[in-house]
């Protein structure tokens, strides 16, 4: 489920970057719904974008920042583990602003520590969701009251 939210956020960020005029949210929502995403997922993604990216400021945790034109080069071990598609998707997440430099490194670290022989795009989506939405994403703690009524695990 969290991976689907990453997909919706990525789609919206791409569309926002490509738009020359003001965004037509209804049109974007219809396109996403036609692709199989729910209204709740779309609304959550839009809400997340506006709450987290409109005034995203560096935190004290961010110890470094890459130049906006710099791309991180993979270490030889990372080149073996990451599929080219997965690394490209990860770079795109950073370029669109979904991940900052610190979060980018967290995703790389988590992918390496997963002990998987290869890291795919689906793995990147899963790990990025964990980093972006918080490590307790599996517990749905960040979504209580949004997807679930408080104290319930039933989606309405």
Write up what this structure looks like.
With 156 residues, this protein is an all-alpha fold. It is 55% helix and 0% strand. It is built from seven helices and no strands. α5 (84-96) runs parallel beside α7. The radius of gyration is 16 Å and the shape is globular. The relative contact order is 0.13.
Secondary structure elements and pairings:
Elements: H1 2-18, H2 25-34, H3 39-52, H4 76-81, H5 84-96, H6 101-113, H7 121-133
Helix pairs in contact: 1-3, 1-7, 5-7, 6-7
Summarize the structure.
The chain has 7 helices and no strands. It has 156 residues and is mainly alpha-helical.
Give the class from helix and strand content and strand pairing: mainly alpha
Strand content: under 5%
Terminal CA distance reads 15 Å
Main sheet, how many strands, which sense, barrel? none
Helical percent range? 55-70%
Write down how many β-strands occur, each being a DSSP E stretch of 2 or more residues.
0
How many distinct helices? 7
What is the chain-wise order of helices and strands? HHHHHHH
Shape label? globular
Uncertain segments are: 136-145, 148-152
Q: Work out the radius of gyration.
A: 16 Å
Report the average pLDDT across residues: 78
Tags for this model:
mainly alpha
């Amino acid at each position: 489920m969290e991976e689907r939210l990453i997909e919706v956020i990525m789609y919206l960020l791409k569309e926002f970057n490509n738009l020359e005029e003001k965004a037509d949210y209804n049109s974007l929502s219809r396109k996403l719904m036609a692709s199989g995403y729910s209204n709740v997922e779309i609304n959550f993604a839009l809400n997340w974008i506006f709450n987290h990216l409109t005034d995203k400021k560096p935190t004290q945790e961010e110890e470094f920042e890459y130049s906006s034109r710099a791309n991180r080069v993979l270490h030889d071990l990372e080149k073996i583990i990451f599929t080219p598609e997965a690394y490209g998707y990860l770079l795109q997440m950073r370029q669109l602003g979904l991940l900052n430099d610190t979060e980018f490194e967290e995703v790389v670290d988590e992918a390496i520590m997963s002990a998987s022989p290869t890291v795919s795009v689906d793995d990147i989506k899963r790990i990025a969701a964990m980093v972006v939405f918080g490590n307790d994403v599996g517990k749905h703690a960040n979504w209580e009251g949004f997807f679930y009524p408080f104290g319930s695990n039933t989606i309405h």
